[in-house]
Task: structure prediction
Amino acid sequence: MTDLQQTYGDVTVALPDEGYVATVTIHRPPDNFFDIELIASIASAYEQLDADPRCRAIVLGSEGKHFCAGAAFHRRSSDTPMPGVASQGRHLYDEAVRLFSCKKPVVAAVRGAAVGGGLGLALSADFRVGASTTRMTANFARLGFHHGFGLTATLPPIVGQQRALEMLYTGVRLNGEDSLRIGLLDRFVEPDEIDAAAAEFATEIATSAPLAVLSIRETMRGDLPDKIRAATDREKAEQDRLNGTADFAEGVRATAERRTPNFQGK
Result:
């Protein structure tokens, strides 16, 4: 057997012949903005690793300053479609459900910002490793938008219902220490140790009996894809509705101009 090196769009997969830990890396530096193609690529990488018995755990990381700074709303023109729909008619959230349906445990190495849908991507993992430089925010309401990427189903179990509501209503920006305190991060290290610490965490998982880990994971979160499907159906409908509002246009403009938005409830 030889080391596995595979590329899916802007995502690479590396699986050494020894160690049982695969690394899935996003290559859209510096911000790693996502769209349907990126999420589909991650899902395809996970599916390949599900089928490979050499892989027992996955590290999800990124190249650049930020883990994933969400969708690049500020780059849209008025006639540019939302970043969720592909020409084949599949939606971003179809690919998100496919990602959540994969079987192997994932540790996310959260360098820099995990914003909006980027936070949703981070919460798709079983665990998250970060540092003082980590920033996590569900900033949708500050854009005049509804949250997405299944945060309805993933955020409350991790931080509690009230803290989730606070994050979603206010779009508060949490630093690494606050993210650790409320449970968004599971391990906290020095900024230059995030990748290594995530790999070490994944190795700890990989040294357990693989069939037992898969069985336990299925018990603990086996119905999560169904919950994500139901959550994203609602989230998508509300995002489609709010996409045409003046408040959403104002939120995007204000973010691009780095100013406080002036929402009118229209």
